[in-house]
TrEMBL record:
InterPro entries recorded: D-isomer_2-hydroxyacid_DH, D-isomer_2_OHA_DH_cat_dom, D-isomer_DH_CS1, D-isomer_DH_NAD-bd, NAD(P)-bd_dom_sf
Taxonomic source organism: Melghiribacillus thermohalophilus
Top EC class for this record: oxidoreductase
Name of the protein in question: Glyoxylate/hydroxypyruvate reductase B
Pfam families reported for this sequence: 2-Hacid_dh, 2-Hacid_dh_C
This enzyme's EC code(s): 1.1.1.79, 1.1.1.81
Domain D-isomer specific 2-hydroxyacid dehydrogenase NAD-binding per the UniProt entry, residue ranges: 110-288
């Protein structure tokens, strides 16, 4: 019989159509709602493969229910929603979608950096509220980006793509990473520094590190205290790398100047979230990789990984 594939999110028909004869495809019927845990639990009993997004927590209890499960194909570069260690213990393959989203996510990261520095969202809001009366010398005066120092925490593929953009703005590029990346240093002319030095020297501190046990809450009160009072903090990786209470206080008390955030500790957030009460926060709803081209490529790559594994082959992009 055909392998059973569960899609934990509704995706466009043209993406899964090519597989409809090979697989018995079951799909969560909503594009804008995450699958319920009960439904995922039920579906896992029979699934040979599942397609997940970053909103789907796949833990030990769920995997123990997946007696036939061979692959979890996550439509994201991050995989902190999956207990990968346990999956590997059970011989379940986990795949992610790196590379195809690198440039788009770097574009968004830089857009957010520019927006936070030059107060774009605040300025847009100003006109919409009909407050624009005149041009004035220091009206909406922000922070220069060009020739400043950017500190990238997490020099992976996306970090390097951000560094590349920063070079175009004649920025001085510092980075910190678990292991030094001499190849990247050569390619882009970035300088490796210890974490504390990066915090102290950077005008823009950009978090690009995956969420792991080591990086959880990495940006806390102590970290914000080390930053310049004029520093702008950007996060497009995972909200869990930040202690949001500490960030709120740092922004409120002027320990740092502003923040641009695409990710939050508990998503989604609403307008009552403390960080949204601050004018010096530019907030986005986790749209780092959100271009049509890139999202289609991510979906396709996840399905290719499923196809390979169900045919007994090695997936293209396994999480190791
Ligand atoms: C998005 O956050 C991703 O991990 O792809
Ligand atoms: C601003 O528009 C200027 O002309 O300086």
């Amino acid at each position: 019989s055909r392998p059973r594939v569960y899609m934990a999110r509704k995706i466009p028909e043209k993406i899964w159509m090519p597989y409809k004869d090979q697989w018995d495809i079951q799909m969560w019927p909503y594009e804008d709602l995450p699958v319920s845990r009960t439904e995922l639990f039920q579906q896992l009993k029979q699934a040979d493969a599942i397609f997940t997004t970053l909103t789907d927590v796949v833990d030990q209890e769920l995997m123990d229910n997946g007696k036939h499960l061979k692959i979890i194909a996550n439509m994201a570069v991050g995989y902190d929603n999956i207990d990968v260690e346990y999956a590997h213990k059970k011989g379940i393959i986990v795949t992610n979608t790196p590379d195809v989203l690198t440039e788009s996510t770097a574009d968004l990261t830089f857009a957010l950096l520019l927006a936070a520095a030059r107060r774009l969202v605040e300025a847009n809001q100003y006109i919409r509220e009909d407050k624009w009366t005149t041009w004035s010398p220091l009206f909406m005066a922000g922070t220069d980006v060009h020739h400043k120092t950017i500190g990238i925490v997490g020099m992976g593929r996306i970090g390097e793509a951000v560094a590349h953009r920063a070079k175009g703005f004649h920025m001085n590029v510092l980075y910190h990473n678990r292991r030094r990346r001499p190849d990247a240093e050569k390619r882009i002319g970035a300088t490796y520094v210890p974490f504390e030095d990066l915090l102290e020297q950077s005008d823009f501190v950009v978090c690009m590190t995956p969420l792991t046990r080591e990086t959880e809450g990495l940006f806390d009160r102590k970290a914000f205290q080390k930053m310049k009072h004029t520093a702008i903090f950007i996060n497009t990786s995972r909200g869990g790398t930040v202690n949001e209470q500490d960030l709120y206080e740092a922004l409120k008390e002027g320990k740092i100047l502003a923040a641009g955030l695409d990710v939050f500790q508990h998503e989604p957030i609403g307008k009552d979230h403390p960080l949204l009460q601050l004018d010096n926060v530019t907030a986005l709803p986790h749209i780092g990789s959100a271009t049509k081209d890139t999202r289609y490529q991510m979906m396709k790559l996840a399905l290719e990984n499923i196809e390979l594994v169900l045919n007994g082959k090695k997936p293209k992009t396994p999480v190791t």
